[in-house]
Amino acid sequence: MKQFLKKILMFSVIVMVIFVAYELLLLLVPNEFSYKKNYIEKHKDELRILVLGNSHLADCIDCSLLGEDAFNAAQPGRSSYYDLRLLKEFIGQMPKLECVVMPYSYDYQYWGHLHEEKHEPKFNTYRCMNLKYMGYTYLDGEWWHWSEILNSNYDHCGRLFGSLYKPLTDLTMCDSLGIELDASYDTRGDDWMTKQLPETASLPDSTEQRLNYQDNVKIYSEIVTIARDHKIRLIFLAMPIYKTARERVNQQRLDEMNEFIAMLRRINPDIEFYNFIDDSRFVEQDYYNSIHLNNTYGARKFTPLLREIIERKR
Amino acid sequence: MVFNSIQFLVFLPIVFLLYWLVFKPVKWQNALIVVASYVFYGWWDWRFLTLIAFTSICTYASGVMIERHREQGKLISAVNIVVNLLILGFFKYFNFFTESFADAMSSLGWHCDAPTLNIVLPVGISFYTFQALSYSIDVYRKKLDASHSLIDVMAFISFFPQLVAGPIERATKLLPQIQQPRTFSPKEATDGMRQMLWGLFKKMIVADTCGMIVDRLWEDAASQTGFALMLGGVLFAFQIYADFSGYSDIAIGCARLFGIDLTTNFKVPYFSRSMREFWRRWHITLMNWFTEYVYFPLGGSRGSKGKTLLNTFILFALSGLWHGANWNYVVWGLYNAVLFVPLIVFNSGRYRDTVASGRMLPSLKEVGLILMTFVMTVLGMIIFRAPSMAELGVYLSTMFSSSLLKVGFGYEIKVALVYSAVMLIVEWIYREKRFALDFGDSPTGIVRHRWVRWTIYVVLFVFTVLMSGLHSNFIYFQF
Q1: Which residue on chain B is closest to A12 by alpha carbon?
Q2: Interface of chain B toward chain A, CB-CB under 8 angstroms
């Protein structure tokens, strides 16, 4: 028995050393999380416009069309909790920051990571990557989220070995100013209009959604308070969605969205909200899928509109 | 709890150490097996523990009663069989039979609403029910003495390594091992670890990679090329083999750690030269169960050829239905029975040895026979995988269209084929051993060096963990 246990122990030690070395090597490989955090850190003295949020803005705000000193720090799948953490960490260190742009739409009040399925690979991946590369633990702060091997369903092997020969943008998945590179018109696929159709928009709310709602009230209230205290313009955008998705969004959700914004305005009356959900200027070729604009036509059409909004009140 | 989870990685060493270092007398070891097995099973849904406990108690009681009242043994055994089959039938087949009945009625012009229930299928119910049935039948047949220890019977029915997806152990094989004192064998334990490692590789690398592609192809079969769907069939054949035999390898390896020898469930079935040989090598314990308790009592192959054919059809139809409450499983069973017709009529396809025994490579004839058998198996697997008969129709009609000749391999398909090829090559090399990576007592060739063997273990384990992005459940859990 002793001999057997010794063998098992030896095997475990070898394997553990390999895994630890692997995790440490991964830290050296740039990715979107580390790139965006590092960019903000490096340019915090110059940035005037900061785009936060998730894929709805990450896919289609081309900061090269937005003017100087703007950066798209939005990230696919990021929940409002991480936006708040970023704001809290950097807003006091950004002397030139004038404007923060964030998405807000018909189901955001119900969306978050905490009350979703604990072992859902997608959410564990976000928890892991945010903890490891942004330095932000999620509310429950479980230490084991640190390990990419245990948590991330990103192709970390491909990332590690790809770093030996791939260009930086292939690793970060975004251009130097933060727009997502894979959400292009050319790669959207024939079934784009049925991809990511909203499922919950017309359904009754679940317990998880209600719990997320309570979190989001706190998180968004804090975000608008921080913006008010630092005298930063806070612009919320409800992004265009294609008609296949729009058919699934009922009036109740739209009313709830407006009520939520009204609630935030009671805390900070200066916040701005622009609703593009039914904007007919956006046509088929502008979309990446049913609820995202693409980074080609969509970004070229949407970013100038945002620029106009920003410059209107300058 | 699943084998390929962090929870199991913690659970197994704890149970192992308690079993050999703390709970030394066999009585206590069996009690620990029961507790560990119930924790293992209850991890999915603790409510179903009552079901498995009920099955165990009924089975135990039937054994004791059969022994005490021999003259009524048949009746007692029958009651136990009926009770267990009723439970299985309710959870597994209630909706299937009511819906099928309603469909049959409406095809005759009578409309009737089928009462359907929202029933959750308890994991592994078909496996442990069959194991329980084997006990009372064997006690009735006097092949086994009834156990007077409820704990022993509970341990036999719920032994966690094989509880949810087999191998389906016969009471005559497993129960005596549970009743006997066990001693730790470092060789068996090391072999067990090796077998578990190979099983994990098959499941987490081969099965999950193939499964991802197969799922996608089935989702939208109509818009795929015939060639892609043909490859989908081949990949599913690899997936289900790697998944199920991977589970069996882990189960058998894990049992070895506890000094228990389980029955081999797969013996390189894709190297079979006929369907008859294939079914001697595929899901061996289920086929043995049906052969022993259904086929032989029906007369087996002792009567005329017509009778043998009828018994074969019954055997395969039941085996299909055992897999699930869906017509495609029945059709799959009958498809296999049809393939047996020429074998029975011409009394051919009997191969007792392993292909190319004592040689490195097979002869051309053997290659031809293996390929032919594999093609027939793949067609059967497509039927097996179909979510419904309508989708099976779409899949097959698209596959056998002119686009079958549109050859094209995507990157992911190439990767899946490479993984499958590695699995097949290793299993070919070790086809006459108990399992792949069974290096034996005195390894020869390059693996005689300890460092080579250790490198293989480490590389295989690290590769399996790092490359397994998708942790899906084992296919056979649903049965």
Answers
A1: B458
A2: 6, 20-21, 184, 186, 189-190, 193, 454, 457-458, 461-462, 465-467, 469-471
| Kind and range of the H or E run holding B170 | none
Helices marked H in chain A: 2-27, 32-43, 55-58, 80-90, 121-129, 148-151, 156-162, 168-172, 207-229, 243-246, 251-267, 297-312
- Predicted interface score ipTM higher than 0.85: no
Mean pLDDT of B363-388: 93
Check pLDDT > 60 for residue A250: yes
The answer to whether B20 contacts A14, with C-beta atoms less than 8 Å apart, is: no
Contact list, B222 vs chain A (CB under 8 Å) = none
pTM of the prediction?
Answer: 0.81
Decide if B308 contacts B340 (C-beta within 8 A). no
The chain A residues in contact with chain B (CB within 8 A) are 1, 3-4, 7-8, 11, 14-15, 18-19, 22, 121, 149-150, 153-157
Least confident among B145-159, B267-281, B349-363:
B349-363
In the beta sheet, which residues pair with residue A49? A70, A99
Q: What residues in B contact A19, CB-CB < 8 Å?
A: 462, 465
Q: pLDDT per residue over B153-173, tens digit each?
A: 999 999 999 988 879 999 999
- Asked if A155 and B469 come within 8 Å (Cβ–Cβ), the reply is yes
| Mean pLDDT (whole number) for B290-294 | 92
Angle between helices B49-68 and B125-140 in degrees, nearest 10: 10
Share of chain B above pLDDT 70, in %: 96
Angle at B133 between CA B129 and CA B139, to 5 degrees: 150
Number of alpha carbons in the 13 Å side-chain half-sphere of residue B26: 13
The residue assigned the tokens 């790092």 is B466
Residues of B marked active site are found at 323
